[in-house]
Amino acid sequence: MEHSHSHTHTLMQSKSPSRMQSQSHMPSQSQSVRQIDLFRRGGTRAGAGCKPKGDRALVPHDTRARVTRHTPVLVTTRLLASLPNLRSERTLALLRATLAAGADRFGFRLIEYSIQSNHLHFVVEAQDKIALARGMKGLLVRVAKALNGAWERTGRVVGDRYHARVL
User: Among 8, 45, 99, 104, which residue has the fewest nearby CB atoms (within 10 Å)?
Assistant: First the structure.
């Protein structure tokens, strides 16, 4: 068998160990491993990643602070800019009933809330970060469905992720 650099030799299918040893000191191009960069975007470069869209910057996807059952959390969530004012009498009554219905679920308790014209503030307690995430998701889904029903519309209501700060 002739000594050539064919595909079968690079896969080392030869039966002779001496032939494998003689080839190992001179690796061919197909034997060497080379990384091919297909995608050159993203990564940990400065300025990499999606840029904030809209007039105001969005809530960053940083790691949230550690939550325990002993630490109250101040949560703020902003609604989309094109929605009606939350402080109309009809909407206030609807939000109060909706928040009362979703106030104590999944190891999550809504302690206090403040309804502003375009955003909501909550003081909540949760057993851990999973309970906080599940409770906030459930609460904000309730709010979105109630507001969409009252305003006779469909689609998103909450503008972005909620911002949580351990007190």
Answer: 45
DSSP tag of 9: H
Number of CB atoms found within 10 A of residue 151's CB = 14
Distance of CA 9 to the CA centre of its chain: 48
Q: Give me the amino acid identity at 26.
A: M
The total of structural domains in the chain comes to 1
What count of residues does the chain have?
167
Q: What CATH number should be reported for the domain holding residue 158?
A: 3.30.70.1290
- Judge whether 15 lies within some domain: no
pTM recorded for the entire structure: 0.61
How many Cβ atoms from other residues are within 10 Å of residue 18's Cβ? 8
Cα(126)–Cα(98) distance, integer angstroms: 19
Q: Residue 134 belongs to what domain range?
A: 73-166
Quote the CA–CA distance of 75 and 113 in Å, as a whole number. 9
Q: How far apart, in whole angstroms, are the C-alpha atoms of residue 130 and residue 127?
A: 8
| Helix 129-150 × helix 89-101 angle, to 10° | 140
In whole angstroms, what is the distance from residue 117 CA to residue 2 CA?
A: 83
